[in-house]
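User:
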Amino acid sequence: MVSPEKSSPLIAALVAGLILAGCAVTEPAEPDTAETAPPGSADNPAMPYNGMAALPPVNDDPQQLMGLDRATLNEKLGEPALIRRDGDAEVWQYRADRCVLDLFLYGVDKKVEHVDLRDRGDGGASSVRDCFAGMLRAAMPST
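Assistant: Predicted structure:
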């Protein structure tokens, strides 16, 4: 056991250290705007309201495919699930869980002259456009 006479300098040193530590000046931490700003605000634009990654914007109108040739279709949608040839026409079919897209290509240069986007029977009209947008996003190159 330490005698009271020998412990006084030790206690004095500890008390002095605590006093000096309490006197230290510290700067307040900068707030993290990603945590304090509401999602989707100007200070935090990349975070959507639900916390999920924002989907890239796409034009969900299937009529945008009118007049496109084979190469451009491959860039926009990738390879079709099926290509059917009927005389001078080619029908390119793309399938997803909720919809089917048929593109009718005609002429020597085979360009889209008719578009048929339809539901597979388990969704409404608005889901068909959402489904088509999903096809376009799935074919986008990942960055």
